[in-house]
Each structure stands twice: as C-alpha cells, then as structure tokens.
Amino acid sequence: VQLQASGGGLVQPGGSLRLSCAGSGITLNHYAIGWFRQAPGKDREGVTCIRSSDGSTEYVDSVKGRFAISRDNATNTVSLQMNSLKPEDTAVYYCYAGRGGWDYWGKGTLVTVSS
C-alpha cells in the first residue's frame, strides 16, 4: 500500500495550489482520507478530512472557506484545493487513509507561501 502526495511548491500569498493524494494497493473511497500538515518547529495538525461513509468533510477553522477536499474515484485520488494561501499555510502536507484500525501515511509534499 502506498499513498503519494504531490502538487506542493512555492506560491505567493493569495495564490492557489492543488495537492493530490494517489493511492496504490488501496481503494481510497473505502477509507476516511485526511490531510495533515507540519510547519517548521510545530506539531503536525489535521487540516481536513473526508469520510468514506457519506463523503462528509471537516476543516480546521484556519482553512475554512479557503481549502476544499474532494475525491476522484475514477483515478483513486483525493485532492486538496487550496486558495487564498497565507504564509502561515507553509508546511509539509501529508495525506492519510484510515479505516477500522488500519491507517496509512504518505510522504509529504512541501508547500511554501512566500513573496
């Protein structure tokens, strides 16, 4: 099982990025999928998740209205659309899949928001 996060990069404040989490050896729509991030010197925090049962989503307050998580079952990916990016969004972003005690983490992708 592998999760591969991609799409990170350098963006100016106010810009947008779209992260993708691709699964291999795992059917992502059978799992709750989360995006976490870890900024330099800080603990890892949960950013958003999407449930497998009903597709409902949750967001940490700091990204509500700016980030959107979505599934593409045809490509077995989960995306994170990030708009109106702020310097404080700078972090390594990780995707996570969890179900019934089984959980998997992908390697992170670095997002840097800077002018």
Written account of the structure:
It is built from no helices and 11 strands. It has strands at residues 2-6, 9-11, 17-24, 32-38, 45-50, 57-59, 67-72, 77-82, 91-99, 102-105, 109-113. It starts with a strand and ends with a strand. The mean pLDDT is 96.
Number of strands: 11
- Helix/strand-derived category reads mainly beta
- Termini, distance in Å? 37 Å
Q: Write down the secondary-structure element order.
A: EEEEEEEEEEE
Can you give the helix content as a percent range? under 10%
Q: Round the mean pLDDT to the nearest integer and report it.
A: 96
Largest sheet: 7 strands, mixed
Oligomer: single chain
Strand content: over 45%
> How many alpha or pi helices?
0
Radius of gyration: 13 Å
Brief description of this entry?
The chain has 115 residues and is mainly beta.
